[in-house]
Amino acid sequence: MKKISLAFFFVAALLLGNTAFAQLEVGKGSKFLNAGIGLGGWGGIGYAGGIGLGASFEVGVADNITVGAIGAYRGYSGYGAYYSIGGRGSYHFNEILKISEDKLDVYAGLGLIYSGWSWNESFAGFRGSYGGVGLGGHVGARYFFKPNLGAFAEAGFGVAPLQVGLSFKF
């Protein structure tokens, strides 16, 4: 996993190259892709601990407003998996907070997320699944160290208490 993440980061950095920064704007047509890991705690349906993989994609629909999708997966070797998929929206606060840093994007939002848990305890013969729709929320920031490549961190509920990873702007 560590080798794959490092290779992914290296290839993305090479592809995006060195170019000058323009003012980071979030408006109609802006596109963001976050891909990373979810750390710890809970999911939309209860405790699910561990490290998971997740991604979100959002498109600007108006100044400072984006909407999109989110998904996450966390497997438990031999026992089952936890997964989430849903829609979300974010408001980007740079303008209101008068953040002049052109590499930083501060945002927060809500989502509607279907979360499920499936299990297979072969030693005991139990199999099943459970799922439901719940409300998700997030507060996060992206920092772009290249015009189209950065890092993100989000705290929230519905997928994982903390998510970190790479962010791409299209």
From TrEMBL:
Species in which this protein is naturally found: Rudanella paleaurantiibacter
Cited SUPFAM superfamilies: OMPA-like
Organism ancestry: Bacteria, Pseudomonadati, Bacteroidota, Cytophagia, Cytophagales
Key words of the record: Signal
First and last residue of the signal peptide: 1-22
Entry keyword annotation includes Signal: yes
Protein name: Outer membrane beta-barrel protein
Database matches in InterPro entries: OMP/PagP_B-barrel
